[in-house]
Amino acid sequence: NSVDQGIFQWSAPSNIALVKYWGKKENQIPANPSVSFTLNNCKTNTKLAFAKKADRNYFSFDLLFEGQPKEDFKPKIQKFFERVEIYLPFLKEYHFTIDTENTFPHSSGIASSASGMAALAMNLMSLEKALNPLMTDDYFYQKASLLARLGSGSACRSIKGQVVVWGTHQNITGSSNLFGVEFPNTIHENFTDYQDTILLVDKGEKQVSSTVGHELMHDHPFAERRFAQAHENLDKLITIFKTGDLEEFIKVVESEALTLHAMMMTSMPYFILMKPNTLEIINAIWKFRKATKIPVCFTLDAGANVHVLYPNKDKEKVLQFIQNELVGYCQNGQYLCDQIGNGAALI
Ligand code: PMV
User: Fold this and answer.
1) How far is CA 57 from CA 91, 93, 98, in A?
2) Closest ligand 1 atom, residue 152 Cα
């Protein structure tokens, strides 16, 4: 089957981990299982144009970010192509133009590696499907997640929605270290349209890249206990997703966020990735929750920004609280409203 040229276009969302992935082995194999909410609004849209080329001895691609050539992303894509070539043996037969844009401001400090790598992986799978039309949907999505993982670990959780598990866990059927899978059980209605408002506390360059961060877990004094704890927390979430117990949900999610930061504070070298305003926000959330009994909680990535998580039915009150009391802690008053979503989509 010969496919000489064409264009595909996919969007893929970001995701926010509830149980965090922090620490990995060879080949982007996670040291512990993680679980995330797929987001809906924070997305990367990527257009992949491809054309057959004569010389098949090298990878050939141009990269455009928001319509402009982007040389500094190229080494990452080159490395990605090298890693996935064994799974996509046709890569060197084509010249690619990768045209990509994010729906969130690029200076927001929101990592676009998850959504970006997931969108690219979907496009490459569309080309593979054009070459091998008989593949099943299951194979298509599973392999897209596997490819995304090789681009950036957490990207494998951005292919599907709404709750995705990555990493082998004894009580989650079908879970794998190689790709993300949809959480297999029915999820309680308390989590329907769950909200994530992302408070942009510090939009600067990441102090610690996730590559360096994962490496810090190698000789980390608490690593083994932490990896075991992630399994325990995932077990707790299995129950929580069944019962809808938001009080327990809050405990697991906030503890995971603080543990992620605790790992960075106790590694060698050590880092503090929160800013004073991160702590101000956490304290304000705790105070608001105590006063109103509204089950709002926070989680954090490997940075200072705060994800505020809450049920859809409390949206009005929480947004009012955010506007009145939290916006002042955000850089230029910036925040992004998002919610749980369904994963990558063909455009
Ligand atoms: O996908 P990476 O290698 O950028 O790692 C991301 C790690 C965290 O965002 C901090 C946690 C997670 O599980 O998403």
Assistant:
1) 10, 8, 20
2) 1
The residue type found at 13 is P
177 and 210 share one domain:
no
The token pair at 88 is 């996509």
* Number of structural domains in the chain: 2
Residue ID of nearest Cα to ligand 1 atom 9: 301
- Residues 151, 20, single domain; the answer is yes
Name the helix (H) or strand (E) containing 116.
helix 113-131
Res 77: pLDDT:
96
Mean pLDDT across the chain, nearest whole number?
Answer: 96
Contact 157 CB / ligand 1 (< 6 Å): no
pLDDT recorded at residue 1: 52
User: What is the whole-number distance in angstroms between the Cα of residue 253 and the centre of ligand 1?
Assistant: 15
Tokens of 15: 């995701």
Same domain flag for 231 and 175: no
Q: How far is CA 331 from CA 36, 111, 125, 204, 297, in A?
A: 26, 17, 38, 10, 20
pTM of this prediction exceeds 0.90: yes
Digit-coded pLDDT (tens) for 283-298 = 999 999 999 999 999 9
State the amino acid at position 130 in one-letter form.
A
- Cα(185) to centroid(ligand 1), Å: 24
- Which two tokens mark 209? 């890249």
| pLDDT one-digit tens code per residue, 235-267 | 999 999 999 999 999 999 999 999 999 999 999
Rounded Cα–Cα distance for residues 304 and 198 (Å): 11
